[in-house]
Amino acid sequence: MHPTPAAAAVTGEHDDDELAAFGMRARIALHVLQVGFGFVEEDLRIRERSDLVLRMNPVHRSVPILIHRGRPICGSINILQYIDEVWAKRVGTRLLPPDPLKRASARFWADFVDHESKGEEKEMAKAELLDQLRRLEGVLGDRSFFSGDEFGFLDIVLIPFSSMFHGYKQHMWVKRCKERESVRQVLPDEGEMYELHKKWYGIE
Amino acid sequence: MHPTPAAAAVTGEHDDDELAAFGMRARIALHVLQVGFGFVEEDLRIRERSDLVLRMNPVHRSVPILIHRGRPICGSINILQYIDEVWAKRVGTRLLPPDPLKRASARFWADFVDHESKGEEKEMAKAELLDQLRRLEGVLGDRSFFSGDEFGFLDIVLIPFSSMFHGYKQHMWVKRCKERESVRQVLPDEGEMYELHKKWYGIE
């Protein structure tokens, strides 16, 4: 399936911190569209970024970065859209739906998840997290996935943060996502994930 | 050209405050793609939002909102992409370039402009504004427009904030944008714009 890597994903090591979850998005998307890729782990515990990161993302000096044909694509949402535009046709699976209204909705909720609680205090962020959760549950409704009948863009955006969902180990959407090979290959195993989420959010 | 409005743009009144600039983006894009639209101005000086805004954007209760076939699309960048996906083919003009790498770059810089200085103190924001400006000048380089040879997505994102550009009245990119009918129809006239920008940024 992956004879030669088509791209390289520069992400945080998954036991580092919350930022690593953004890199998981890129890696899941590459697996979904069957794109072979090399994987560079950046140590986020140390303050200095590697030369690769400084060169590829001089503006934000952050991961994840997707490197394709030597050119960087920065930011996890941006990377997902790029992956969709470059590789989706080849395998006949799209991450974003074809309908513009549904695409707009997916982008709206992705933006909601990533930008709502920026720059707020920790306590505020927790209250907002609960509010976010309630709203996201409403978006999911009775559907199998956030993207509808099929696992897609918004599922990829959310699954690395699955512990947001109440009783997430039992949550049907979380279970359905974790049955997928693309997700299993990227997400840490259940016990490890639980410890990570506890660390990231202070949840029990 | 515009026999019946195809959509409605709900935006702030342009003399209100900085938020109105985000609505200008939506309106410029609709003009570029020759989409007829109704225009609802929301008074941003009062604290309460209208019933229309509360109904169409219950999550953020913010403008701009594009209403198409009774359905809302919220957030100016999201709106631009929606407009491009729905109406660009019809007129043979695209807001975002076809090349995925260039699309990723345009989205990256749009995100950079909108999210970089959120949640920071005013003074910090000013220093960052200067840094932003320097970086954006680098992106423009020797090209006519941020989108390349043609006025497009990133130009629309930036032109309502044209006063960021040093000596912006004389700035060649600003001049080129203001020669365009789509921009002229939306942006306040020169004197009015100058007063607005002074108010928004405290510039002289």
From TrEMBL, chains A, B:
<dbReference type="GO" id="GO:0004364">
    <property type="term" value="F:glutathione transferase activity"/>
</dbReference>
<dbReference type="GO" id="GO:0006749">
    <property type="term" value="P:glutathione metabolic process"/>
</dbReference>
<keyword id="KW-0808">Transferase</keyword>
<dbReference type="InterPro" id="IPR036282">
    <property type="entry name" value="Glutathione-S-Trfase_C_sf"/>
</dbReference>
<keyword id="KW-0963">Cytoplasm</keyword>
<dbReference type="Pfam" id="PF02798">
    <property type="entry name" value="GST_N"/>
</dbReference>
<dbReference type="InterPro" id="IPR040079">
    <property type="entry name" value="Glutathione_S-Trfase"/>
</dbReference>
<dbReference type="InterPro" id="IPR036249">
    <property type="entry name" value="Thioredoxin-like_sf"/>
</dbReference>
<feature type="domain" description="GST N-terminal">
    <location>
        <begin position="10"/>
        <end position="91"/>
    </location>
</feature>
<dbReference type="InterPro" id="IPR045074">
    <property type="entry name" value="GST_C_Tau"/>
</dbReference>
<comment type="similarity">
    <text>Belongs to the GST superfamily.</text>
</comment>
<dbReference type="InterPro" id="IPR045073">
    <property type="entry name" value="Omega/Tau-like"/>
</dbReference>
<protein>
    <recommendedName>
        <fullName>Glutathione S-transferase</fullName>
        <ecNumber>2.5.1.18</ecNumber>
    </recommendedName>
</protein>
<dbReference type="InterPro" id="IPR004045">
    <property type="entry name" value="Glutathione_S-Trfase_N"/>
</dbReference>
<comment type="function">
    <text>Is involved in the conjugation of reduced glutathione to a wide number of exogenous and endogenous hydrophobic electrophiles.</text>
</comment>
<dbReference type="GO" id="GO:0005829">
    <property type="term" value="C:cytosol"/>
</dbReference>
<dbReference type="Pfam" id="PF13410">
    <property type="entry name" value="GST_C_2"/>
</dbReference>
